[in-house]
Specification:
Layout lengths: L3 H4 L3 H52 L1 H14 L7 H16 L3 E9 L7 E11 L1 H11 L6 E10 L7 E11 L5
Length: about 180
């Protein structure tokens, strides 16, 4: 029953061959089980992602009327970009509102922003120096939904010379309706 080559081995060699064969069998088993568990883990992760996406879609479908209404409101109220002068109008609005709240505006700059299929924009960038409460009120007043103003970048820190004052760098944009194709 035993192969001839196995019979020619000494007892010690046979034991060593069985140990090596058992070790190889164990390693192959570990590799197979590791691959199976890895695949199972990936499948569970993918399933969780798909369930989350499905739940998100279900939520959007349940709120379809809300989002359709918001889209309709946006199309009715979003201003149309008439010219690049809108950037200076935005900066004037910022200066006027900053003056109302006693906020110092430094290094103002304007420009045309990016255009995407959803919107066109103009931007104004500036630096501020003021106390914290007026800055908060200024940010609240400038960002009303009907204004279509967004802050693209904001950097705030305490003034090194006067710890009661805040320094800020802002880049804000006004979004307009997309260009007609």
């Amino acid at each position: 029953m035993m192969p001839e080559w196995f019979q020619r081995m000494s007892q010690r060699e046979r034991r060593l061959a069985l140990i090596v064969a058992g070790g190889l069998l164990l390693l192959i088993n570990l590799l197979i089980w590791s691959k199976l568990f890895s695949t199972l883990g990936n499948a569970r992760t993918e399933l969780a992602l798909r369930k989350a996406a499905r739940e998100e879609q279900r939520l959007y479908m349940a709120q379809r009327d809300l989002w359709a209404g918001r889209d309709r409101w946006l199309k009715e109220h979003q201003p149309i970009l008439k010219s690049a002068v809108e950037a200076s109008t935005l900066l004037e609005q910022v200066k006027q509102l900053a003056g109302k709240h006693n906020i110092l505006i430094e290094n103002p700059a304007i420009g045309a922003g990016d255009s995407t299929p959803e919107r066109q924009s103009v931007f104004a960038s500036f630096e501020t120096k003021c106390a914290w409460p007026p800055l908060v009120q200024f940010l609240y007043d400038i960002q009303q939904p009907e204004a279509f103003i967004v802050f693209e970048s904001v950097q705030l820190h305490i003034d090194n010379a006067d710890p009661t004052m805040m320094r800020g760098k802002f880049k804000m944009a006004r979004w307009f309706a997309p260009a007609a194709n």
